[in-house]
Amino acid sequence: MFARRLGPTARLLIWLLVGASCVVLDSRYRALEGVRSGFSLLLQPVREAMRAPAAVAAELGGFFTRHRLLQKERDTLLAERARLIAGVNAARDLARENAELRALMQLQARPGQQMVRAASLYQGHDWFSQRITLDLGAGAGLRSGLPVIDTIGLVGQVSRVFPGASEVTLVSNPDQLTPVFVERTGQRGLAAGSGHGQMELRYMPTQTDIRPGDRLLTSGIDRVYPAGIPVARVSRVSRSQSSPYLRVECLPLAGLDRSRAVLILIAEPRATQP
Amino acid sequence: MNAAPQTVGGWRRILGSLALAVLLEQLPWSGWALALRPDFVLVGVLFWALHQPARIGFGTAFFLGLLADFQDGAVFGQHAIAYAIGVYLVLFLRLRLLQFDPFRQAAQLFPILLTVQLAVLLVGWLAVNPPTGLVILLPILSSTLLWYLIAGFVRLWHGKGLRGQA
Domain range holding B145? Predict the structure, then answer.
């Protein structure tokens, strides 16, 4: 009887070994992406289905929204629409002028950029990987590395692509570096996540002109993100005696944990000139 | 001692409750709800490891842990290792836990859940951001060796041999 079953301690040790090899295989050699794809295929329909209760709840909540609130919202929207139409006319004019100028200068137009709308399916619960899962995958033309934005700012970058879903690494992930510039001064820098949904601007010399309230936009020098997408707003600047750099804390502008729908920017791969 | 738990649930009930736990985790939680969300799968696994240890054990816990790793986009093995540790602790304390009423059981489960969470934290930390490699574990070995030397020295000092009962 005793020879038949291993004791709990021995079994625990075996499973710890298996677990440790999983960790090494996954983090060092990326050998388990197939398992991930399998889980994704398995869970994708379930996730889609489990979105229904939340949708019903939102629907019910919307039903009870007061009439007055809707009227007010409609008035604001009408006013804004009028303003936007004026803006669109101006922009159309500028675009035409721009096209003419480009033609005159024989410049190549920027590669066509296509936007794909995706819904956020699931938000991870892990401290180390600040990630969200989207309901579009390789089938919709997604590749890993594409920038993801919402209506306010940069959300992150597609980091894993499955057949019907994809994972986005948020800008607040400590491993995610975003090249940015300070809108007010043009100073370039690198923004990185600092955990807890915040970001920091790294390697800013102490005499840099930067203050709370400054906006950071993508600089576009990495050719991953188009230039000028809002990323974060500086919330606190402090200097320490021990470091030659400023400690610049920022808050991401995009609704990282609120946005239900995001946009993915798909750019044509840039053709290399001979 | 307590015969009732052995009759709780057959395979259908076990699999049904675990499937329900997985489903609950698939809801689009966000914000405070996400921060407060209990780990349904872990609670389910520990419950069945307590009441049906012959059916639900390390293997199931490990597999569901891998599933949790996928869900959170974490490194594979992070939750799997932690869940296996949780099952081990429950098996270790099983006879003790079965004696208690629900309130005391929950209180006893608190340190187990804490250990599991700390294991998740530790494995994730080692896998994603290895601080200085495994060198930080060396003091454990040297401390163990030191313990052996001190204990042996004290015993020899009192004229007892290194072997045998104290």
Answer: 133-166
